[in-house]
Amino acid sequence: MKRVLTLALCILCFAANAQEKNKTGGYPISPVPFTSVKVTDSFWGQRLKASREVTIPLAFSKCEETGRYENFIKAAHPSDTIKVEGFSFDDTDVYKTIEGASYSMQTFPDKKLDKYIDSVLTIVAAAQEADGYLYTSRTMNPAHPHEWAGTKRWEKEEDLSHELYNLGHMVEGALAHYQATGKTNFLDIAKKYADCAVREVGDKPGQVTVVPGHQIAEMALSKLYVATGEQKYLDFAKFLLDKRGYTTIKSEYSQSHKPVLEQDEAVGHAVRAAYMYTGMADVAALTGDTTYVNAIDRIWENIVGKKLYITGGIGATGHGEAFGENYQLPNMSAYCETCAAIGNVYLNYRLFLLHGESKYYDVLERTLYNGLISGVSLEGDGFFYPNPLESIGQHQRRPWFGCACCPSNICRFIPSVPGYIYAVHKSDLYVNLFMSNNSEIKVDGKPVVLKQTTNYPWVGDINLDVNPKKKQNFNLKIRIPGWVLGQVVPSDLYTFTDNKKLSYSVKVNGQSVTSQLKNGYFTICRTWRKGDKVEVHFDMEPRTVKAHPLVEADQGRVAIECGPVVYCAEWPDNDYSVLSAVIPQKPVFTVENKQDLLYGINMIHTDAQVLNYNKQGKIEVKDVQLNMIPYYAWAHRGSGEMTVWLSNDLSTSRPMQQPTLASESKVNASHLVKAISAVNDQLIPKNGKAQAVPYYHWWPKEGTTEWISYEFDGEETVSGSTVYWYDDAPWGGCRIPKEWKIYYKNKDSEWMPVENNEPYTVTKDVPSKVSFKAVKTTAIKLEVKLPEKNASGIFEWELE
């Protein structure tokens, strides 16, 4: 097992001397293990501390509180009376939290935590069947397993069972735990389950030919091969990729619609996709199969050119948690799952290790500072599942989710961030991320002590103290970010609009040096001595960005960013509707450092105007100051409006509406969900397909009679109603209702049908309007009959 320490970091970024290339092939560039990097940075130091002291303990407590541990106990004592509940992948929350805790223990040893993990692993081991199979959703009650599990092993693997997904996270957690502790108690469990899968899944007689419904096993098995040297694990990882597109289920949702080598567009579930593409890179690096690399390169070009949010998020729609069509990037309904952002970092990291080009780190850095860390609160105790770019207050972080993949994924990712700062290749030392740290790195097998000092991302000055043990010749390769060079992302999806030309400079021991950029890196080739100092300066100022003309949601709007940080306007900093703000076409910005706000940020100010309708329906204009904060820091001060993309054209302005009877009513319904506020938010869809507008739904109810009501402060006169129906056919679960009616509450508090002057009609993508004999009432109710096999939903419900 000592091979972990010499091989694992070809892929993992965790073994201490993993800069030695795997003898059987691996990435050309080697990571520097995060255990060699001690972060002293105020920005990332706060995040790492919150992860260690809050997020990881919280995740363990939630695993206990929500029955994750209890599932293993039940599996150790199976019974046909046990009711199998939760999700079929709940086991992975335990594995991922152990993984994150293991990463943390490598830099901050904790005997108490180590002992606690051992106690959890005792429970996990007891749940494992004799042949290695470990899947509590079946084992706790084999006669009546989880509804997603199927009647026998692997039967629904390509659908919803997640057996191989559970294996993947188990292996990743086990390898991290082994490296942190040197103990094999978790690794032994993982190997037994992996061996079981290798025996039972394949295309040989007696085996089941399936591929994972949710990818990650491909990545994990590649790592297990590197750690153990056992070829069967790499062969199995490659089998799972090569068979994709040839088995029973062929679906874009799980990227099984065609063989992986034929794919050239990012489609389907964004997390599954990112994990699969990362697994392809791992297998390609270990086997030397360039056809895999070519396929990933094509898909990456599609993502970065047509499907990437300015925050680095991926996944446009909540329907299938999936990529949308090319250039389909809505803001308020943007999904941008936190797990997908983590997957995006994994993918771009692997592509850098393969190709050595800074453009992959440009995407990685954008994702890291924006769409990824927005997924966890600054305190480490609240989480976003989706990360939208616009809100009217319906989005708030939560302490946990029933489907808790994002919190536990954050647990394992944040402690690993220091491992992304540096990389090495023979005599090349790459400086990829900028954060204060003290590191000891082997370059050409010789130790170099490196100290980085910076106040990045707020200031573009970075100081590097280079101290080789003995004088040494090597190349220090400093990434010059794309945003410095005038490129928002490595494509034409986003471009700067302000015509500013930022510059950069590099000095060695106080003397300016020059270098021609190659692959985005400024290379300093010299014989380094103790005490050498490098000073790097990047101009850093607010910039305006526009989207490609085919991104419909962002036309007539601009986003503001400064350095790697994307900004947003949020309600606590502005005493007006930020959604109604219009900024000048040539804005002037000022930057204010606010150390006492949101753990220390730079706030950006500019002039703007707010439009609103007065009582006569005329538009009025008011000059205001617009104040913006980093996007990652939004939703820390209560519910309210937020937007990343700001109007700078009258065609996209949204004047504030005067309050209406509906907008000031209290809403109640037969099915209470947080989105209920959407029905009277005065946001009208342009058409029934405009799913960027918030909506209310009765899902998962089907075929029932449901209702929603408005209650008034006093008696009001009502004579008409208009309903904008939400219908997400063919993929979603909502359809227009079979029928609908309006009722009013009489003086005896009884619901009575109104006397309508025209028939109730319902047509997809067309508002349903009805007028009726005026009634004086304190409440109005809308009753709907749902379709037999679907729910229904509402964008907006207006009263007259």
TrEMBL record:
Keywords: Glycosidase, Hydrolase, Signal
Stored SUPFAM superfamilies: Galactose-binding domain-like, Six-hairpin glycosidases
Keyword Ribonucleoprotein: no
Domain (Non-reducing end beta-L-arabinofuranosidase-like GH127 catalytic): residue spans on this chain: 36-418
Superkingdom assignment: Bacteria
GO MF, one example: hydrolase activity, acting on glycosyl bonds
Ranges for domain Non-reducing end beta-L-arabinofuranosidase-like GH127 middle: 429-540
Name of protein: Six-hairpin glycosidase
Upper taxonomic lineage: Bacteria, Pseudomonadati, Bacteroidota, Bacteroidia, Marinilabiliales
